[in-house]
Amino acid sequence: MIRIGLLGLGTVGTGVVEILEKRQEELKFLTGEEIKIKKILVKDINKKRKIQLEENIITYDYDEILNHEDISIVVELTGDLEQGYRYIKAALESGKNIVTANKAVVSKYLEELSSLAAKKDLAFLYEASVGGGIPILKSLKEELALNKITEVEGILNGTCNYILTEMFNEELDYEEVLEVAQEMGYAEADSTADVKGYDTLRKLRILGTLAFQGEINENDILLEGISEIIPFDIEQIKKKESTIKLIGEVKELEDGFTALVQPTIIKEDSYFANVNNAFNSVVFRGDNVGELNFYGLGAGMLPTANAVLGDVIDIIKGSYRKGNPLGKRKLKNLNTKLKNEYYLRISSPNDSIYKSIENISKELLSKKDNIAIITKEIEYLEIVELLSSLGIDNNNYFIARILK
Amino acid sequence: MIRIGLLGLGTVGTGVVEILEKRQEELKFLTGEEIKIKKILVKDINKKRKIQLEENIITYDYDEILNHEDISIVVELTGDLEQGYRYIKAALESGKNIVTANKAVVSKYLEELSSLAAKKDLAFLYEASVGGGIPILKSLKEELALNKITEVEGILNGTCNYILTEMFNEELDYEEVLEVAQEMGYAEADSTADVKGYDTLRKLRILGTLAFQGEINENDILLEGISEIIPFDIEQIKKKESTIKLIGEVKELEDGFTALVQPTIIKEDSYFANVNNAFNSVVFRGDNVGELNFYGLGAGMLPTANAVLGDVIDIIKGSYRKGNPLGKRKLKNLNTKLKNEYYLRISSPNDSIYKSIENISKELLSKKDNIAIITKEIEYLEIVELLSSLGIDNNNYFIARILK
């Protein structure tokens, strides 16, 4: 029998319990083992749960899991950055394998935890942290030894993609859509990490570091979120027969890399334009395989729980690539080489502001109510610095990269 | 050191040698082993090769590989059905692991070879046989224990997709495009298996049997190829704001399954409409993951060789799911339940023929030069039988399913 310690019983944790229940027979046939959740760590031991649980399975004392000799796999689903990190580290140090969906922890502590797990000859798997139910990290890891990967890009956050899709298709306000998304369970009560782009950034940091076999940090990535977008922006984008998506992208150049997470305006007939609602998609390019695309549900109870359990089975069957998957290449950040045309909208404009930005403008889209321009080919930071020097608060503008 | 016996040194075999060469370091780092091709079985020992090979590596005697104790993995790339089968069976019986790209063998002997490999505790891996460089079979196998898969569909043949894309975009004749495809190496000199749909059918038989965990045979699949398509057909399809793809599809119903490979007319804005040229795509649906799409190059030297070597590494690292992946469900063929509207074109028509098919017609598209109709919702075999009873040769008609 395989015994699991589960940390957290929120949406994903509940999904894990549910799938283990309904696919019991198939899992036993495949693994030759019964898989049992032995202990579940929760914050509130008296909270009412949607699912029936055995007596004494719930605990608020992590030591009960750490010290339980029969528990060989800890599944960390707390969603909490520093606590999640401490739990994972302690589990590895106690000789237990780790499966986690916690992208914040994986992003911040990827090198340390990968190295610790490898040293201890244990698994540290985090498929669910990127792309939800899409088996992207495993596929990527398995291509690494065979391919030189030169590019990874993706729509990596279901909440942002849902908001942008609805704003575009239903012509709704940002706040209205966000509210509906929260009611439907697509967006969390505190959606800051999603809409400000941090969630996409973390996933890109993980993908990039694996793909390029060298450390790409959160700080290496240019970041612009979608929280300031307004229906006026959507109108301008539609006029250009384009749509807008929050895209994360790392590219290897001859002597380094570029990395960004930015709202990106793309033609309506391009591939990413058809990735809608809560769907995610990741594209990578390798020298042998060429372009490989993966598409599926990037979030949600069952897709995410499915990814978590895929890792669990890989541990039980030994069917994962052992050892530290991270390479030691030293890569130079070449983001200053990134030049693009950008869409820039500034609210409550006055004439002096328009004059101040005129010399980065290639095309004036509007001067009424909002100033909207398409910039010349320019660095993103140049725009941000210019706006800052003009005293324009970041609540009052929206920037999006334009892909031709 | 890991020693490989390679059977066949055509396009894919050459790609295998090339990747092993250029990714030597990375592969050694990952596997901790040197991977060496010890022997290569060829038909013509004196043929000039594009690649430099060590002396004495080439042989025309399979026993040299079978009896070589140090060879632990046989990579079968002959492309020949019955000979390939004999080679694979003999290798497994001699205790050697198998990697093959030979979809004809895998399709015909899937149950026998899976069972033999499992009995011998050896690997029988065939990722390259479906979807070329796209890691679809492994992903599918790994979802099986967790998901109930209810549908698999795909564009599975690069040659057909290239032909249909070019006929549609460049308004060329079938023969012209085929010739170009052959010159460019997309299509083989004998393209029968591709354009008559056999290749797609074999891949679908493999996908369906894995997905549904019960035997779906070549004979279970309704088959119509693309070899009779003419520019006139493309014109009619364009008028309906649609395009055409050769699609393979298996669906599970409540008490059985349906399976078909048919030219399929789809709306221009649908997902498969954007899978063009030599690209393949496979979509499957599971109860946990929802819809998962994979997209990439379905053929070609390096993508296919990459898939072959992915299997080789999995064997070396032990990172594949061991045991027989096939289930024992008994599934009922429900193809007679499949009703669709079809596009039907008959060349060199006469008035009596039109009268004979009038009562299956929902819409008459043309009576000039060719009769073209859209049928009512009808069974595919009903059309074929009607045409046969009218004495219309299968060189003189083209049928395509219409998806709404």
From TrEMBL, chains A, B:
<comment type="pathway">
    <text>Amino-acid biosynthesis; L-threonine biosynthesis; L-threonine from L-aspartate: step 3/5.</text>
</comment>
<feature type="active site" description="Proton donor">
    <location>
        <position position="203"/>
    </location>
</feature>
<dbReference type="GO" id="GO:0050661">
    <property type="term" value="F:NADP binding"/>
</dbReference>
<protein>
    <recommendedName>
        <fullName>Homoserine dehydrogenase</fullName>
        <ecNumber>1.1.1.3</ecNumber>
    </recommendedName>
</protein>
<dbReference type="Pfam" id="PF03447">
    <property type="entry name" value="NAD_binding_3"/>
</dbReference>
<feature type="binding site">
    <location>
        <position position="188"/>
    </location>
    <ligand>
        <name>L-homoserine</name>
    </ligand>
</feature>
<keyword id="KW-0915">Sodium</keyword>
<dbReference type="InterPro" id="IPR036291">
    <property type="entry name" value="NAD(P)-bd_dom_sf"/>
</dbReference>
<keyword id="KW-0791">Threonine biosynthesis</keyword>
<keyword id="KW-0028">Amino-acid biosynthesis</keyword>
<feature type="domain" description="Aspartate/homoserine dehydrogenase NAD-binding">
    <location>
        <begin position="8"/>
        <end position="127"/>
    </location>
</feature>
<dbReference type="GO" id="GO:0009088">
    <property type="term" value="P:threonine biosynthetic process"/>
</dbReference>
<keyword id="KW-0486">Methionine biosynthesis</keyword>
<comment type="pathway">
    <text>Amino-acid biosynthesis; L-methionine biosynthesis via de novo pathway; L-homoserine from L-aspartate: step 3/3.</text>
</comment>
<dbReference type="GO" id="GO:0009086">
    <property type="term" value="P:methionine biosynthetic process"/>
</dbReference>
<dbReference type="InterPro" id="IPR001342">
    <property type="entry name" value="HDH_cat"/>
</dbReference>
<dbReference type="InterPro" id="IPR016204">
    <property type="entry name" value="HDH"/>
</dbReference>
<dbReference type="Pfam" id="PF00742">
    <property type="entry name" value="Homoserine_dh"/>
</dbReference>
<feature type="domain" description="Homoserine dehydrogenase catalytic">
    <location>
        <begin position="135"/>
        <end position="313"/>
    </location>
</feature>
<feature type="binding site">
    <location>
        <position position="103"/>
    </location>
    <ligand>
        <name>NADPH</name>
    </ligand>
</feature>
<dbReference type="InterPro" id="IPR005106">
    <property type="entry name" value="Asp/hSer_DH_NAD-bd"/>
</dbReference>
<feature type="binding site">
    <location>
        <begin position="7"/>
        <end position="14"/>
    </location>
    <ligand>
        <name>NADP(+)</name>
    </ligand>
</feature>
<comment type="similarity">
    <text>Belongs to the homoserine dehydrogenase family.</text>
</comment>
<dbReference type="GO" id="GO:0004412">
    <property type="term" value="F:homoserine dehydrogenase activity"/>
</dbReference>
<keyword id="KW-0521">NADP</keyword>
<keyword id="KW-0560">Oxidoreductase</keyword>
